[in-house]
Design brief:
This protein is mostly helical and 181 residues long. It has a single domain, classed as de novo design (two linked rop proteins), CATH 1.20.1440. 58% of the residues lie in helices and 7% in strands. It has 6 helices and 3 strands, in the order H-H-H-H-H-E-H-E-E. The chain has a 3-stranded antiparallel beta sheet with strand order 1-2-3. The longest helix is centred in the first third of the chain and has 43 residues. It is elongated, with a radius of gyration of 24 Å.
Amino acid sequence: MANTFEKTRKQIAKKRGGNIEALHQNSRNSKRLHKAQVRDDRLEKIERARKKQDRPLLERAVFFQQAVRENQNQPLALDAVHSRINEFVHRFNEEYDEIKKTRRAGRPASMREDLLRMAIEGLEKEQRDGFFMPDLTSEKNVALLDRWEGKSWPYLTNVAWVKVSAAGLVKPSSFPPSQSI
């Protein structure tokens, strides 16, 4: 969290003997405070955008971490990996079908329905072309994934990532991926 404003306010208060309320509107100190507040707001906005962008990859890592833990921290065979990928890709189908069923005939799709449909289509396309995921076939990598706390983004660079195609081809990949997921 950005704290430029607090530092600036503290410096000005120290210089003015603790009386910060008597600043003139166009004074240098007032402009310093305004500039610090704008900077803090900008940094928070950037941080929120980055967290929003990173969320799908973190959710993916958490899902496969749970899959590893369900398998008693043992590596998975390729067919088990494909079934987990299929489970991940189709996790929204129930909600999508429910929303679609409750919609009255002749009505346009709701925003949530459109978002779910696009998410499902995107995941299915990625499953065909090459699904980006942690390598669950390596014992060392499974142990690394199990030790991950679930929130730390930098730790995920230590975990080996692969792209698994629908044909069963496994290609090594790097984290984070070059294109957003």
